[in-house]
UniProtKB/TrEMBL annotation:
The keyword Ubl conjugation does not apply. GO terms for molecular function: DNA binding. Gene3D superfamilies: Intergrase catalytic core. Signal peptide: none annotated. Keywords: DNA recombination. This is Core-binding (CB) domain-containing protein. One of its GO terms (biological process) is DNA recombination. The keyword Lipid metabolism does not apply.
Amino acid sequence: MAGKRERIDRRLSAASPIVLDQLVDTVAVFRDGWGEVAKRYDLGKLGLPTDIAMLLADAFRNHHAASSSDTLRHCWMALRVFARFAVEDGHVLSAGDLTTAMVGRYVGWLDQQIAGQTNKPWSKGSRANVLMQLRQMIDWTKRRHPSRLPARIDFPWRSWPNRHADPRTRLGGDDLKAILRACYEEIDEAWERFETGRRILATSGPVDGVDPELCDLIRALARVNDGVLPSRTLAIRSQVNISAVARHGGLRHLGGYLHLTGETVVAFFIALAIQTAGNPDALRLITRDCQVAHPLDEHRVIIEWAKPRAGRMIKRAQRRSFDRRRRYAAPNLIDRLLAMTAPLVSRGSRQDRNRLFLVKSEKKDTVTLIPEATLSHALKPFVSRSNVRIAIWNKAAPERARPLLPDFAAVLLRGSVATEYYKASGGDIVVTQDVLNHARVDTTELYIKGPQTRRVQREAIARLQNLMLGWIIGRETDTGDHPARERIALGANALAPFSHDCLNPIAGTASGSTAGRVCRHFGGCLRCPGLVIPIDAEHMARILQAKSELERARERLDPRRFELLYASSLRILVDDILPDFPQSLRAEAETRMMTLPTPPALE
């Protein structure tokens, strides 16, 4: 007999109305892609009036619902600045006091703020960013809930004009080389410590060259927290010999025997930032599967990472290729990072598990992507440690003295590397734009603007004026100090601008290329060893069309000029490339050639 089921109530009931203008509380909670709480901000603790705190919390919660954690943190810091202004101003007591006059007072208050580290006023960019965060909250409230703003409040269009007029300080080439050398020294030291830890954990007996007490200590720490450095409280609770820990450098130092630590990660990050010329914020988010095999060179590896603001609808991937045969090439550094962070991967959250720069929090027993603030704060100790080593070196070998590291921030690296590329290319901003992967040249110009760039531009203008005068009056110009690739050469080297005089892809012959590095036009030259031409009718049609155009140019151009500039290309097409195509494709190729677009005239 079937059991009796309860009757389903299918009657419609009126749902409780949703009151859009109802403010909930002063807490803004943000969740990650898996529904877990990622960030929680309580604006009620900032000292703002309750109605203003609730208004800003609702705008913060909704406007930044899909923003990154860094964007959330920047907005939170800006709201804290506004709360400090409201307390000091004394006239912001309710939402009715959010007026245009209040914005004017806020702008004046921001102009008076002094940075604690530099004892100088805030930069125009910092002031503009802080004001922009408040403006976004107010604009969201205007669009969605205008009734919450009793008074009119407007923001000036440009409170601080020409905020990019003063270029940032740039690090010179010698500074970058000194920083890289210090990074490599610290990386080698960290890697040697990690390798020692792996040898200790791989056996239960003594290890050659290692203190037996240190071996026992590393094994004890690894057992406490499954291979991850435990907190001091957990270590004491697990009866780890804390006195021995102190004798061997402390928990922070011993953590390097087990995995990557917050102290050693900064050297890896700086080295990769300089080599890739990547944006520090985007490079911090690089994933563990960032290495891709090069399609043409077995010794090169492509490093890929994402930049959230690169492109609008279609995001452009950031990528650079490196020769793995170099000891400190980026792929080799990434391999070390993968090994040193392997014990931490299983402890990371689902959104951070695939990140490369994983570290264990010293305050909490959690593994996260290294925060931006941690990297910023770790730079100064890194510079101090490096300068101590350099001072010892200079004292021991004064005849080979090394320069001390300058005080720098991670934000300076990308612009400094861009400036060096600009100088090395002889003032070619397109080359620098290609390295930085910018969509617009004016964006690249902001990175390289400075006295070094102006000097390169003045030298280029003077050199071109000298050449122009030489052509006009017929005198020889002094090109002794000019780079070889910028000289006007005829004869055998006249084909270089057309990329037909390069049998060696690392010779640096082509415009914009550097000797010792793979040509930036690699794969696009007729005689290039990297050239790949599919054997099909379509490509044969294009080759026949190019051959016909060159033959027509031979009839109308001066014979000496044609022989100097174009004859080599025609000979390569006729003697080297066309014989590789089977005759069976020629009829179809000639038919397809009639439908191809008309090629541009050579001259």
